[in-house]
Design brief:
The two termini are 36 Å apart. The longest helix is centred in the N-terminal third of the chain and has 27 residues. This protein is mainly alpha-helical and 282 residues long. It has a two-stranded parallel ribbon with strand order 1-2. The chain has two domains: 119 residues, Cytochrome Bc1 Complex, Chain D, domain 2, CATH 1.10.760; 110 residues, Orthogonal Bundle (Cytochrome Bc1 Complex, Chain D, domain 2), CATH 1.10.760. The protein is built from 14 helices and four strands. Bound molecules: heme C (2 copies). The site of one heme C has 20 residues, from helix 3, helix 4 and helix 5.
Length: 282
């Protein structure tokens, strides 16, 4: 089947290219003028400095270790500041990301050092992603020297046009037929570990229920899809087609009692990122 290209997507792609170009042309003279040690601050968080898989790992750590204080949406609370948005970016802009990394190493304040350096780097990747800086081909390293080479830019302009999810799993984002297809693929590729009922077993986590939904609420279908596509089945990640992975996600949604609708979930990451996972409408 030919891939559908939606005009709004094309438009926003064009807009991103425009912004990047505009940005590059504005930025370079400033850079040339600023005194700079070679090899330092050459890259920026806008250049794609973490991977999707790393962001997803970071999100899971964030959910268990940080969300209580900083909020599931990183919006902060009475007890802790926001980790996203104009103020946060404004406060850190112009630093290099090793500083943010070192700050995260002091968190949670009740037990600093609880996270390993790679886990702190994963959380940092998640925080960067939630400030709308894009993923790229390589992971953010848990290495202070390497992190010193990445500037935290105030690129809220570029950030603003990464589209926010505009649909929800409660809107009916897959079809009954797709659920049945997904169930068959799941039975072949996943059930041996996660069980036919998705309840999990021993060390294998459940893919239904409060724990699972607690971890994924606030993420997008795109993140769940990427988590599965890049890590599952454990012995052969990526071995299914994007459409097959999307069918499995449809089955997972079905078992979590999200309603079916008229159009199937498609295996296109950009489209999946427009769908928020939530258990009730805000
Ligand atoms: C018990 C509540 C609590 C938990 C849990 C917690 N934090 Fe914090 N965090 C704070 C408070 C309070 C501050 C502000 C005081 C400070 O900067 O130390 C803060 C500050 C920060 C800052 C600096 C924000 C800024 O703009 O100055 C970052 C980054 C941060 N936390 C990240 C994290 C991460 C990542 C985690 C999880 C690994 C985490 N925090 C867990 C309470 C918490
Ligand atoms: C060989 C056993 C095995 C198979 C087969 C397998 N998984 Fe997993 N899966 C695991 C284990 C163990 C974990 C926990 C460790 C990890 O996260 O990698 C896990 C984690 C996951 C998670 C993260 C759950 C969470 O709580 O966030 C998802 C989602 C998932 N698997 C989906 C799938 C899907 C879909 C398939 C089939 C395409 C599949 N798995 C096949 C063993 C397996």
């Amino acid at each position: 089947m030919p891939k559908r290209v939606r005009p709004p997507l094309l438009l926003s792609a064009a807009f991103v290219i425009f912004l990047v170009a505009a940005f590059a042309s504005v930025r370079s003279p400033v850079r040339a003028a600023a005194p700079q040690t070679p090899g330092q601050g050459q890259k920026s968080v806008a250049d794609g400095v973490y991977t999707d898989a790393q962001r997803t790992r970071g999100q899971q750590i964030y959910t268990t270790e940080c969300a209580d204080c900083h909020g599931a949406d990183l919006n902060g609370s009475d007890t802790a500041p926001s980790l996203s948005g104009v103020e946060f970016v404004g406060a850190w802009k112009g630093t290099t990301v090793d500083e943010l990394f070192e700050k995260i190493r002091t968190m949670p304040p009740t037990s600093p050092g609880k996270l390993s350096p790679p886990q702190s780097a994963d959380v940092l990747a998640f925080v960067i992603s939630r400030n709308n800086f894009p993923a790229g081909p390589t992971e953010l390293a848990a290495d202070v020297a390497a992190l010193k080479g990445i500037r935290f830019e105030g690129a809220q302009g570029a950030a603003a046009d990464v589209p926010a999810p505009n649909r929800s799993v409660l809107d009916g984002v897959y079809t009954e037929e797709q659920n049945r297809r997904g169930q068959a693929i799941y039975a072949n590729s996943c059930a041996s570990c996660h069980s036919a009922s998705l309840a999990g077993a021993d060390v294998v986590p459940a893919l239904v229920g409060a724990d699972f939904l607690g971890k994924w609420t606030g993420a997008t279908a795109g993140e769940l899809f990427e988590r599965i596509r890049t890590t599952m089945p454990q012995a052969s990640p990526g071995s299914l087609s994007p459409q097959e992975y999307a069918d499995i996600v449809a089955h997972i949604f079905n078992r979590n009692r999200f309603p079916a609708g008229r159009a199937p979930l498609d295996g296109d990451l950009a489209a999946l990122r427009m769908i928020r996972i939530e258990t009730s409408k805000r």
